[in-house]
Automatic annotation (TrEMBL):
Keywords: Hydrolase. InterPro entries: HAD-like_sf, HAD_sf, PGP-like_dom2, S-2-haloacid_dehalogenase. The keyword Nucleus does not apply. The keyword Ion transport does not apply. It comes from the Bacteria. One of its GO terms (molecular function) is hydrolase activity. This is HAD family hydrolase.
Length: 238
């Protein structure tokens, strides 16, 4: 890659960008609501769970372990402290099952990463629990294609500025690709890089923000199969 290229480094989100993730949270949430059916409608239970997740993000961070603790907290709240130990045990079992689900790659993930590897520095940038993210990366078989892997507590403009300076030529010559406008796209653009949105049919409500359509470095593609063409147009304009 020429030193003066406009684009030298590409960051990829992991969950719901390279492989399925949110669907397992949705399935477990339905199972959780069923456990507490005697204490409220599913919509009410889910709303209380979301409130707990929102409160607990700053304490537990992102990931399955924090989600499991929020389910336990919600169960205690909606039962007014009378939740049976058997239900707590069932919640813990559900969390463990989430931590062992097989990795299901999203369409075009492998061929796109393989095609871009070598021509660009590829960095996996994901937030969540360290052990779980390492497990999923190992199970995906994509680990060897990345030049670096960063598992972070949150994603901000400062995060991208730091990581793209550490692993690349700074954010101005870097691109972040992901399904979350809030975590992957907007802060990468704020840092001075490109932000590419790959929408997923399921996106956690706490990740919703408006698309920065007026930003010249914002792009949206329907799937990862369109990424190599977009990258080529940016790296070699004209």
């Amino acid at each position: 890659m020429p030193h003066d290229s406009k684009l030298t480094t590409i960051g990829f989100d992991a969950d719901d960008t390279l492989w399925q993730n949110e669907q397992f949270f949705r399935m477990t949430e339905k199972r959780f609501a069923a456990m507490l059916a005697d204490h409220g409608e599913a919509e009410h239970i889910s709303a209380r769970l979301l409130e707990a997740e929102r409160r607990n993000l700053a304490v537990y961070g992102f990931g399955i372990k924090g989600f499991t603790l929020s389910m336990i907290e919600t169960a205690i709240e909606v039962t007014q402290g009378r939740v049976p130990a058997s239900v707590i045990s069932e919640i813990l079992d559900a969390g463990r099952e989430m931590l062992s689900h097989p990795i299901e790659a999203l369409p075009h993930a492998r061929e796109t990463v393989e095609r871009l590897a070598g021509a660009f520095r590829l960095v996996l940038i994901t937030k969540g629990d360290l052990f779980d993210q390492e497990r999923k990366l190992a199970g995906s078989g994509l680990g060897d294609l990345f030049d670096a892997v960063e598992i972070v507590s949150d994603k901000s403009a400062a995060t991208y500025a730091r990581l793209f300076s550490r692993h690349g030529d700074g954010p101005a010559k870097s691109m972040m690709v992901g399904n979350s406008l809030k975590s992957d796209v907007v802060p990468a653009i704020e840092a001075g890089g490109w932000g590419v949105h790959v929408p997923h049919e399921l996106t956690w409500v706490l990740e919703h923000v408006e698309a920065p359509v007026a930003e010249p470095r914002f792009h949206q593609i329907s799937d990862l199969g369109q990424l190599p063409g977009l990258v080529e147009s940016i790296a070699n304009p004209g």
